[in-house]
Amino acid sequence: MTETMAPELTPWALASIAGGLFAVDPSGCGGVAVRAHAGPVRDRWLEQLRQLLPDKAPMRRLPLHIADGRLLGGLDLAATLKAGKPIAERGLLAECDGGVAVMAMAERLTSSTAGRVAAVMDAHEVVLERDGLGMRVPTRFGVVALDEGMSEEEQVPDVLMDRLAFHMDLIPIAVRDMDEPLWTSEDVGRAREFLPNVEVSDNILEALCGTARALGIASLRVPFLALRAARAAAALDGRDQVSEEDAALAARLVLAPRATMLPPSEDDMPEEQEPPPPEEPPEEEQNQEDQEDQDPAELDKPLEDRVLEAAKASLPAGLLAQLQAGLGARSRSSAAGKAGALQQGNRRGRPIGTRRGELRAGARLNVIETLRAAAPWQPLRRAQALADGSSTKSLRVHVRRDDFRITRFKQRTETTTIFAVDASGSAALHRLAEAKGAVELLLADCYIRRDRVGLIAFRGTEADLLLPPTRSLVRAKRSLAGLPGGGGTPLASAIDAVRELAESVKRRGETPVAVFLTDGRANIARDGSQGRTKATEDALGAAKELAAEQFKIILVDTSPRPQRSAQELAMAMQAQYLPLPHADAATLSSAVQTASS
Amino acid sequence: MDFSVHGRYLRQNKQTMALTFPFSAIVAQDEMKLAILISAIDPSIGGVLVFGDRGTGKSTTVRALAALLPPMEAVVNCPYGCAPGKQAGLCKVCDGPEAKDPPKTRQVPVPVVDMPLGVTEDRVVGALDLERALTQGEKAFEPGLLARAHRGFLYIDEVNLLEDHLVDLLLDVAASGENVVEREGLSVRHPAKFVLIGSGNPEEGELRPQLLDRFGLSVEIGTPEDLPTRIEVVRRRDAFEKDPEGFTKRFEKEDAELRKRITAGRDLLPEVVVPDAALERAAQLCLALGTDGLRGELTLIRAARGLAAFEGDKEVTDEHLKRVAPPALRHRLRRNPLDDAGSSVRVGRAIEELFGA
C-alpha cells in the first residue's frame, strides 16, 4: 500500500484504486461516481471492475427513465394472470443484491428516481407498496453512476452523490495512460472475506472526521464513507488494522473531491484566506479545547495533518483557484436545487385518477386498473361463459369493454418567472433596495403559485445568471440578498441572457415570464465597450429580438421619475411598462399573475 | 425464487424488521428528538416536520422510534389495530355484530409506517383485495398504509418530492382522522388517526404552505459543527454497522429509560395544568410574531403541556413555552422572503423580548 501513496499517482491509478476498494465493499462504500465521456477509458475501467467483482455478483444497468415498477418491483401481470393470484415481480434494485447497479447518464437522473435509489441504499431493502402489493425485499448493492455531464447545469443529483464514496474524474485520462489492474479478483475475494476483521483506531476516526471538516464537508455520511474505504484498503492489504496510509488514501479518494473550502494551513494566516464562515474561528478554538479536555489529542494532531496533506495533494488545481474565490460552495448548492426543480418540471401532467372509457387514439389504458375492474367478475363471467357454451369459455381472464380504465392526466403548464435586476451604479443610486423589495414581493407571490424563479443580475460589463430556475425560496432569497450594486449598465447583454434562459425554459415545455427591473439607461454595449449611444442601440436591438420570442414581459422602471429610455425599451420588447412609483405590491403581483395565467 | 406475495395486510412486527439504530444512541439533534418525543406523548399536537441538510440522521431518528415506543393494546383481529373501549374511534369490525364485549386484546408495537417514494395511491388509501378478487371472486377491501398507520406514525421521507395528489390525500385524512374510500364499487370508511412525520431538504424545493401549516412542530436541523460530536456520530454509526445486535444491546437500558418516561408522560398529561398566565404568554408571543390563525397558539400550548408531562412537571411554565416556541411557531410566520433573519431567529427575538433574556 505504501507505494500507492507516492505523490506521482496518476489519475488512472487513483481511479483503479477506487475501483478496487469499491469491489471489496460495494454496499459499504455506496458507490462510485464516474465522470467521463463514453469511450475506451470508461469501458476499460468498468471492465476492470467487473473482473474484480465475484463471478456471481450481478452488475445490472439501470436505464435512465426506468419506471417505478421496474426499479422497485410491482405486480407481474403475465404471471398473475397465469396463476390466478397476484405474483410480484422483483425490481432491478432487488436484482442487484450483492452486486452493482450501473446508472448510465446519471447526470440526467431525476431527483425522484435518485431519491428512490437512495432510500433503498439506506434501508438495505426495497420497501414496496405498489399495485396492491406490500412487501420488503432485502438488497445490498453498490452504485456506479456514470456522469457524462458537460456543464454546471448537468450534475448527478446530490441525494445520490452524497451516498457514493468515490467521485472520480476520468476525463483527463488518455488511452495510453491506462494500465493493468492493481489487483486480481482473488485479491479482492480474500479482502472481502477479511473485511469484517478490520479494526479502526480512534486516531484514524478522528483524523478522518477532522479532515472532512477542515475541507468544509458538512455531511456526516462522508467521513463515514471514508472510513469504509480505509477499511477496504486495509483488507486488500491483509491487515487487521487501518493504517495511516489507508486513511490518507481514503482522504484522497473520498474527501478531497468533495472539498468546499481550503483547509487552513500553517503558513497562511487566517486573514489571508477567503472569508471562512463567520462561526468558523471560534469553533476551531473551542474544539481544540474540547479535545484537550477529552483526551491527550495533541499527539493525534500530526496524523490529522498528514491525512489532510494527502487530501490536499489531490485537489485539482482548478478547484483550488475556485475555492480561493469562494465559489466552491455556491456551485454545489446551485446544482442541488436544480435537480429538484427539474424533476418537477418534466412531468407530462400528473395522473388524476382513472375513468371508465373507450380505447381511442391517445388514450392511455391503465392496465392495472382495468384488470382490477375486471377481477371481481371473473368467477361469475366464467360460469356464465360456460353455461352459454360460448367460445370465450377457455379464456383465463374475461375483460369486457366496461372494464377499460383510462388514465387521466392533468397537464399543468408551469410558469418560470425570470427576474432581470439592474444592479448598476445608476440603479443603485436610485433605488436598488426598492427594486430588491419589489422582487421579494413577487418572489413571495411566485412561491404561493409554485412558480419557478430564475434571477439574472446585470452590472459592470456583463449579466450573470445568479440563480438558474428553481422553486426554492431559500436560494432565491439568498442570492438576492448577496447582490451588490454599482458599475455600468450592460442592458444588451442582460436582454440576451434573459432570451437564452427563456428559450431553455420553453424547451422544457414551460411558460416563461420575464420581469425587468431597470431604469433603461444602457451605457455598456454588447461587446463590453462604453458609450451610451452604442449601448442604447444594442439594447433596443436585443429588445426587438426578445419581442420576437413572443412571451410575456414586464418592465418595471426603477428610476425616480418615469424615464423615456425605459419606456422606449419597453416598447421595443413589447413589454408591459410599469413605473415603480405606481407599481405597488398589488399591481406588480397582479401584472405577473395575468401574465402567467 | 418464488415471489408470490399476498398483498395481505401485515402489521409491521419486530421480527421481520431489520434492527434499527437505537434512538438513544443518536448524537445531538436534541430539538428533533424532543419534538418527536413530545408528539409521541400527545399525538394531537399534529406531527413533526424535519427540514435539514443531508446526512444529519433525519430518517435514522424516525425509524428508531418504532423500537422505542411502548407497545399498545389493540383488539385482536382488528385490521386497524383499534384500541379497546374507545367507542368513538372504532372501525366497522369492532363495532360490527360479531364483535365481542369486552373484545380480546393483545399488545402490539406502535406502528411507524414508512411511506416509500414511488408508493401508489391504492396502497395508501387501500383498495380492492386483488388476490381475493382473483381467486375467490370476492369483493373485499384491503386496507392501505393509512390503515396501518392508525394510532401510530406515518413517516414520509423527502416529503417535498411526494406527488401532489398524494399530498392532498394525506392532508385530507390527517385533518379528519378518517379515511373514506370510494373505489371500484367499494365504499369503506375507517379511522386513520396518525402522527405525520415528514422530512426533507429545503434545497430540493419548498413545501406547499397548506402542508407546512398542517404539521404541528417544525424542526430545522444541521450537521453538528464541533469535531468531538462529529467523531462520535461516525464512531457510533460504524459500530452499529459492524455489530448491530451488540450495539443495540449497549443502548437497551437507555432506550428502556426513555420508554418509561414516555409512558409516565402520557399518564401525567391529563393532569398537567395550563395556568392563565401561560395562556396569556402564548397569546402574546403569537401576537408579537403575527402568526396566522389560532393553530399556532393551540399547538404552542399543547406542545408546552406535552413537554411538561415529559419532564414530569404538573404545571406549564415560561420555561416550557420558551423551549417549544421555536418548533411550534417558526413555520407559521408570514413569509417575508427578504428578511434575512430566518424564522428561527425571529422567533428567538420575540421570545427574548417577551420573556427577557
Automatic annotation (TrEMBL), chain A:
Underlying gene: bchD
Listed PROSITE patterns: VWFA (PS50234)
Catalytic activity from the UniProt record: protoporphyrin IX + Mg(2+) + ATP + H2O = Mg-protoporphyrin IX + ADP + phosphate + 3 H(+)
UniProt-listed InterPro entries: ChlI/MoxR_AAA_lid (IPR041628), Mg_chelatase_ATPase-dsu (IPR011776), P-loop_NTPase (IPR027417), VWF_A (IPR002035), vWFA_dom_sf (IPR036465)
Pathway assigned to this chain's UniProt record: Porphyrin-containing compound metabolism; bacteriochlorophyll biosynthesis
The EC number(s) this enzyme carries: 6.6.1.1
Transmembrane segments: none
GO biological process: bacteriochlorophyll biosynthetic process; photosynthesis
Native source organism of the sequence: Ectothiorhodospira haloalkaliphila
Residue ranges of the region described as Disordered: 261-297, 332-354
Keyword set, alphabetical order: ATP-binding, Bacteriochlorophyll biosynthesis, Chlorophyll biosynthesis, Ligase, Nucleotide-binding, Photosynthesis
Enzyme class (EC, first level): ligase
Compositionally biased intervals (Acidic residues): 265-274, 280-297
DNA-binding as UniProt keyword: no
Name of the molecule in the record: Mg-protoporphyrin IX chelatase
Keyword presence, Transmembrane: no
Pfam (any one): AAA_lid_2
Summary of the function given for this chain in its UniProt record: Involved in bacteriochlorophyll biosynthesis; introduces a magnesium ion into protoporphyrin IX to yield Mg-protoporphyrin IX.
Family: Belongs to the Mg-chelatase subunits D/I family.
Occurrences of domain VWFA (ranges): 416-569
GO molecular function: ATP binding; magnesium chelatase activity
